[in-house]
Specification:
Layout: E1 2-6, H1 12-21, E2 25-29, H2 33-43, E3 46-47, H3 51-55, E4 60-63, H4 68-76, E5 90-93, H5 99-112, E6 115-118, E7 121-122, H6 124-130, E8 133-137, H7 141-151, E9 155-160, H8 166-194, H9 199-206, H10 214-225, H11 234-251, H12 256-270, H13 281-291
Helix pairs in contact: 1-6, 8-10, 8-11, 8-12, 8-13, 11-12
């Protein structure tokens, strides 16, 4: 298919690569031209100067940018994709954004004669590189049916969860759960260290029981070693949790643990950890524990 991909960040770069390897004819756009040129040098295809130029001949467009404002800019801004995408086309947004933004873009897409699917992803950089992302989708059944076979190029699991905005709401649930799990793991490992337990031996045992989690199995070693220069950055997690808390204020959900963890991440940022992996909650726990002695 003729495909456009907007946003070649940590996630978008390998995702677009999977589409190219699958045989799709791809034009890419990235705000930083050097990264787009690098992608073309690695995978082939073409780089466009604007989102509008990237999507002009596309049957399906994918986007993976940072925030609501970034998404608005590449879709509705000057030289935005929505002004050039042809009728009958399909726009799939992998950005983690607000549900309101997804609904607004879906409505605008409908007015312009093309389909829209909000499709935030989970699985981190490793999932993107290995083509094993989990993708939560919102939109019409017909739009999703068109998107799903192409999304499968980099997805281990993809599912339609409801109308426009449902994908973003599901991603919020994902982030709420991860925040709680990471804080529990940080507290548990800090307690273990204070108690003089061998963390590696401990995790080998408890990871085979009800405490098991992806975070425990994949992050306990780096947490114990104080290594955080990898993975999903704290500043992006705070952005996501902010979206969750805003939505909760609208729908009446109570998120006390999420609000608390968000403030703990603010403390991690104050320790210099804005770009640290989200597992750096352990660094805050250890800083607090040692400071209380």
């Amino acid at each position: 298919m003729k495909v456009a991909f907007i946003g070649l960040g940590v996630m978008g770069y390998p995702m677009a690569g999977h589409l190219k390897r699958a045989g799709h004819d791809i034009t890419v756009f990235n705000r930083g031209k050097a990264r787009a040129d690098k992608w073309v040098g690695e995978y082939g295809g073409e780089a466009a100067a604007t989102p509008a130029a990237a999507v002009r001949d596309a049957e399906i467009v994918f986007a993976c940018v940072g925030r609501d404002a970034d998404l608005a800019a590449v879709t509705l801004g000057p030289d935005g994709a929505f002004g050039a995408l042809r009728k009958g086309g399909l726009f799939v947004d992998h950005t983690t954004a607000s549900a309101n933004m997804a609904r607004q873009l879906s409505e605008e897409a409908g007015k312009r004669g093309f389909d829209f699917v909000d499709a935030p992803v989970s699985g981190g950089e490793a999932g993107a590189v290995n083509g094993k992302l989990t993708i939560m989708c919102g939109g019409s059944q017909a739009a999703y049916a068109r998107a799903e076979p192409v999304i499968a190029c980099y997805a281990r699991q993809s599912r339609l969860l409801g109308p426009a905005g449902a994908g973003q709401l599901a991603k919020m649930v994902n982030q709420i759960c991860i925040a709680g799990i990471l804080q529990g793991l940080a507290e548990g490992l800090s307690f273990a260290r204070a108690a003089g337990l061998d963390i590696e031996a401990l995790v080998e045992v408890i990871s085979k029981g009800a405490a098991q989690s992806w975070q425990m199995e994949n992050r306990h070693k780096t947490m114990a070693a104080g290594q955080y220069n990898h993975g999903f950055a704290v500043e992006w997690m705070r952005k996501d949790l902010g979206i969750c808390l805003d939505e909760a204020r609208r729908n009446g959900a109570s998120l006390p643990a999420t609000a608390m963890v968000d403030q703990f991440y603010a403390e991690v940022e104050n320790l210099g950890g804005k770009r640290w992996d989200t597992s750096s909650l352990f660094a805050r726990q250890e800083f607090t524990r040692k400071g209380s002695r």
